[in-house]
Amino acid sequence: MPHGGLLFNIQKFSLHDGPGIRTVVFFKGCPLSCRWCSNPESQRAEPCLLWEGKKGVPDSREYSLGETLELCLQDRPFYEETGGGVTLSGGEVLTQRHFAAALIRSLRDEGIHTALETSGYAEGKVFAEVSSAADLILFDLKHYDSRRHAEGTGFPNELILTNLKNALRAGRILLPRIPVIPGYNSLPEDAGAFARLLLSLGLSRVQLLPFHQFGEKKYALLRRPYAMQGVPQVHPEDLEEYRGIFLALGIDCFL
Ligand code: SF4
């Protein structure tokens, strides 16, 4: 039994991370370092300080399994009414594999729908063990080209694509999601290349996550430089052509 999980937020009433009304449990720690990351406090595996003037406030704390479960179960009526549940997010959930697996198991024992949001960057055995327990995998794909993937996130994408293929081969229910980042993967030819990759994997649905600037203030609180300063946000109406490329190839593409 794991001692607990290091979490930086438990957010209730989310409508964007899986079906229905959801509670999102945010895990600390991520092996990637995406330039656009909107949760920079999630990247370090240990607690950090958020600075407000001269006062440093911890960005996270350890939660026991029981406490986390209790917080999630408080909203059971909303999950039941809307077909919702609990989403494990981060950071990269798989960096705390034991706590993640135990939380998913406990929620499933309670009859709660579980979703795992992941970058897919984890050892194959770890990925398979945790993801196989979840009802839904929200699989974030940053770039179809391995070299460009490494430029944006610090690592190539081969391991990620292997985990994705294995999950599909094992029959997991999986929704690929693409964060659309200006200057990185936002051109029409990028949409075409992503679409061809999805089709080659037998995937026919994709969610687009338009780049936003909600994370900017956190970089200031962490006293870290922000690589995306001044980059314009992407609005849903900016993605009509991009989305249309998926639709034209028969892929159900939505935001
Ligand atoms: S994978 Fe997600 S949490 Fe990790 S650095 Fe990238 S955007 Fe941030």
Describe this structure in words.
The chain has 255 residues and is of the alpha/beta class. It has a single domain (5-254), classed as TIM Barrel (Alpha-Beta Barrel), CATH 3.20.20. Helices cover 34% and strands 23% of the residues. It has helices at residues 65-73, 76-82, 97-109, 124-131, 146-153, 158-169, 188-200, 216-222, 240-248, and strands at residues 5-14, 22-27, 49-52, 55-58, 61-63, 85-89, 113-118, 136-140, 174-180, 205-210, 252-254. It has a 9-stranded mixed sheet with strand order 5-1-2-6-7-8-9-10-11. Strands 3-4 form a two-stranded antiparallel sheet. Strand 9, helix 7 (188-200) and strand 10 (205-210) form a beta-alpha-beta unit. The longest helix is centred in the middle third of the chain and has 13 residues, at 97-109. The chain is globular and about 45 Å long. The chain starts with a strand and ends with a strand. The mean pLDDT is 96. Residues 30, 32-34, 37, 39, 42-43, 90-92, 119, 153 line the site of iron/sulfur cluster.
